[in-house]
Amino acid sequence: MASAFLLDMTRCIGCEACVLACKAGNELPVEMQYIELIERTSGTFPNLVGGFENHRCYHCTDAACVAVCPTGALFKEDGLTRLDRDACSGCGYCVQACPYGVPKMVGGRSSKCDACASNVGAGGSPWCVTTCPAQALQFGDREKILAEAKSRVAALKDRYPKVQVYGETQAGGLGLVLVLPDDPETLDIPADPPLVPVTVDVWKHIVQPVSMGATALAAVGAGVLGVIARRNHLAELKELEEQEKAGVAAGGSESTEEER
Ligand code: SF4
Ligand code: SF4
Ligand code: SF4
Hints:
This protein has seven helices and ten strands. The chain has 260 residues and is an alpha+beta fold. The radius of gyration is 32 Å and the shape is elongated. Bound molecules: iron/sulfur cluster (3 copies).
């Protein structure tokens, strides 16, 4: 079953309870943060409208970060994008590849929301969802989350003429489905995030295995050459030993002759 989050930006009041709950619940160090809120004002005076950008992992089905990760530290599970920081080599490819600018390098390793994998795995809910006082966040079966997003949009049409669901199709379908009061660009969200470039797929699935194969072949080759060199060396030592023995034997017989 694919899981997903609902983030209703018509309800988010920018209280930052989710930010703090995420940091505390996941015991994140001070410099690490998986949710970022930015206050913004739109419109022209005197018709200014205040609001928030709420940046966090979008859990793309076709996740560019997963596609480029050479170590498997980033991977898909239950429709969500997980990160095993212990397996991260710190190459930074995911930081460059993500169309939403989500992964950040912290302490030489990638850092991003893993959808509270351990907490949810133990039967709990993501900390941010549990804490949100405005019912802006929900978590559950993706089909149900999508249905909830569509029903909220239908109910909000009069209040927000441009209200829309974001995430049904973007990047192969997102694991974070948003209810947006306006066009995505107004909240600094790409309307149509680029898909994983073909070059990335070629690099990941063809060039990288071939180069790893070449490295392995080089290692095997070096090993074979080493064995051959060792064998030659042992043969030389044996030959010297035999020559030495033969010399001693000859010397021994000569002195015996002299003694006579
Ligand atoms: S920085 Fe880590 S998680 Fe990101 S692509 Fe490299 S190995 Fe993978
Ligand atoms: S799902 Fe968990 S890790 Fe992700 S933002 Fe919410 S609290 Fe943080
Ligand atoms: S806890 Fe809920 S209302 Fe508060 S900032 Fe987070 S998403 Fe918005």
